[in-house]
Amino acid sequence: MTNNSVEQGDFETDTTAKTLAEDPATPESSTNASQSSFPFEAMNLKVADRLQAQPPKRVSAERCFVRLIGYLQDLSMLVTTPATVNSVRLQLMEGDQLVMRVFSSQNAFGFACDVQRVCKVPYSYLHVSFPKEVQGTVIRKAARVKTKIIVKVRTEQGGGTDLTGVISNLSANGALIDGPRNTAATGDSIRLTFPLKLHNIEANLSLVAIVRAVLVDETIKQSGTSLAHFGLEFVDLQPNDQMMLQSMVYQQMIEQPQSLV
After folding, report:
1. pTM for the model
2. How far apart, in Å, are the Cα atoms of 118 and each of 78, 86, 94, 97, 100?
């Protein structure tokens, strides 16, 4: 059997572009998230809740979602057999270790467990060991995740000009974009148009934002480029747009826990 403890490299809280991270890294700033051990009950798991399962690399590099069937305290948990997005069940063996992740309230949790029994009757499910340790990260109210999203920026002043930038991090309330230094000034109102992918469905958002800060760091200065960072606050968000943003952030936190800013 493998060790059931979760190493710090196995679980943290972040999200970045669109690659599956092999070894989730530590959050970059302790001011945004604080990691510690939690009791199992803190996850507030209920029957049919969805968890993300990271299988051994020899089985799959893809993280899959499973449903909680039930558990017996300190003994074992029952979950549905992980399957790929194409509904192909993973070929797991007894003794394989899974890293489970779940988001609950303002916390992201992770724990390791061993496959104790692979069952196929009356349907495919797994007996996995009860977690000995649960690691959790408390997420700030407006969590930000790293992104690399191409965005079209249209200034609302001077008749309007279209420029292109990159959203380098995103939250439900605002964003940080990198773009030409002449894009906008502090206090300007701009319109952002960009694609957002949520559960394999892509939507296009068009949001109004106020420029709250224009930053030029040492890296940009040394590069000699005419770029700058623009700190933005979204305004007049429609409920559906805000829901899309929040869902995308949570999805990123679960699927790519190394990208929390």
Report:
1. 0.54
2. 10, 20, 7, 13, 17
